[in-house]
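Hello,

Following up on my earlier ticket. Below are the two sequence lines again, exactly as submitted.
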Amino acid sequence: MFTFIAVEYIERWTKQHGKRLDHDERVRKRQARESHKQSHNAQNLTGLRAKLYQQKRHKEKIQMKKRIKEQEEKNVKSSAPDEPSKTPLPQYLLDRSQATNAKALSSAIKDKRNEKAAKFAVKGISEEEMFKVVNTGKKTHQKSWKRMITKPTFVGSDFTRRPVKYERFIRPMGLRYKKANVTHPELGVTVQLPILSVKKNPQNPLYTQLGVLTKGTIMEVNVSELGLVTTSGKVVWGKWAQVTNVPENDGCVNAVLLV
Amino acid sequence: MATLLPPPSKRQRVAQADKAREQQEIDRIPSDLGSVRVQFFDQATGNPTGPAVSVPVADANTKNLETLLNTLQGNDDDDRVPYRFTYQSDKEGQTIDILADLYHSLLQPGIKTTEDTVSLYYTPQAVFRVKAVSRCAASIAGHGEAILATSFSPVSSSTMVSGSGDSTARVWDCDTGTPLHTLKGHTSWVLAVAYSPNGAMIATGSMDNSVRLWDAKKGQALGGPLKGHAKWITSLAWEPYHIQEPGHPRLASASKDSTVRVWDVVSKRIETVLTGHKGSVTCVRWGGTGLIYTASHDKTIRIWNPKDGTLVQTLSAHAHRVNHLALSTDFALRTAYHDHTGKVPTDDKEKVAAARKRFEQAATVNGTIVERLVSASDDFTMYLWEPSSSNKPVARLLGHQKEVNYVTFSPDMAYIASAGFDNHVKIWNGRDGKFITTLRGHVGAVYQCCFSADSRMLVSSSKDTTLKVWDVRTGKLAMDLPGHKDEVFAVDWSPDGQKVGSGGKDKAIRIWRN
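Thanks for your patience. The regenerated structure is below:
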């Protein structure tokens, strides 16, 4: 309420007395100084202030980029050349924007099958970090043989827990993932796909067995909805994908399809 | 690594066990039904054939009815004709195909009883039978870019022409799987190819806004490019053989510049320009009655008289661009005087007469010549038209869930097949546009489809790199033809039924045969 009144107060003053004579000049100078001030702040602020400043600046930049992009789109000339695409297309696929954009997943794969899968630097994870010792109960406490996995895992739908006595590893429900956001590297399309199994965890074969999802883990995902087809005409069901993020930090599993 | 399917759930297992336990019911006809009176009618003329005949219900299957009808007509054992029977009720105008026997089609559903006289309309089926293609006879490299259009010669299945993105068209010898000629001249993609109905000439339309004509035998250019269009050529149609002025065939070309031009092929001059469409013309067809049908992005279908270039009719019902048109007589017009026997009349006059006879045979329904038209559109629907009788569509064909890209009539006009971007091919009744069945199996958009000459099979080409051959009557997959390494843009079944030719993005022509 207070600010509202204050604004009105200023407006009323300008209405009554007009602007200062050097108002425009002052505004121009302030604007001209703006970038210098920003640069000074960015270079010299330290600590929490710097952090807050960067955050603010980051948001501003996002807005700025959006606005620039909007402007650019507005400026596109409508008489752009009609040549729809570089690759030859039959008559019925010309003039169809989505047909070229949503390009057949299948076709791009073949050209680039030889390309090697993306490699990710794998940071070693020690067993201490991976497992937490569970010592509840008398016997368990005495020998401390039970472990809780502290990393995200994939647990198959057919998994049933073993009796408590024989259960050596516990995979917490809260850290289980069934789906991964899988990117097709050539097409730049990201789709959420169900995970089928964990094929290889580069850390440790034991982790593979347990289905631990860490950065660099190779898993099999269900790509049936992408409509990929083998050369023999069969629909591809499962395909391998490699985890690209640290799932425990992000709360989701991002992966890249290995084609 | 092979992926193991999850084991069946308990519900699935129980259902399976139940099904196995239950005795499968056998479809048999009860023997105590006595007999039913059947009256045959000719579908083409609507006249009754022979007297009403009493037939035992237990024996009234299509095979026996066929024999009976042949006997009634006095056909010898040598020239027996296979027939298809349909039942047409007098009141509601409903049409039912007799698939196996009278009992299951009419008596069991309670449409007719054994007390009634059943009127059956018969249409002759192709006396020849096309075998489903099952293997790739040849994969011929040659084109440097994707193949955009293919067409078999109407004369025989031994030559085929294909248009490609490498701005050439090539003629192939399909018997040996070797290239015959390279038709060089265009400066951009060849989007449309068409053989003239007598098989002597090839017309190609290109991205470079020109049409070119070629000698089909020698593979040489017949004069320079036909220039006039301002944008690329989308579709080509030859004047039907039986209405051509002798020695002066004409060609219609549709273009993105929203005009259709009719060319005199001999003098290479524009005869008429059909202007009026407000958007790209996607498809042109030259009907056997001399009218030109065009479909356009401006949502309309227009019918023109090429003599004076006047607009005869505008059919507007679609809500989005019209992608493709098919005439019920397409097959007869395409093949002109080339019939399944392979005998070609020697004299030009006889050729024209033979072509006219074939057209009239194809177009005659109940004694009048009727050319039906079906149009496929981006609004996910198709319309069936009978332009000669009404401006309003006969039927609206609903069912596709995405754009319908291609539509075609079967050579005997009993079926319409439509291919859509929703991965399905759908079969419709060619007479009233009723939905018959969906052919599921493709996992990518279906681009084109083509009936075999005997209308019993259909081949479809898809983005999922496969061709599939379907049995039209049962709606089942007859043959899966993998082999292409990329999207299959164009497919054609030779008019004599021997071969299927296909081409696509993998730059190789494939010839398939049985």
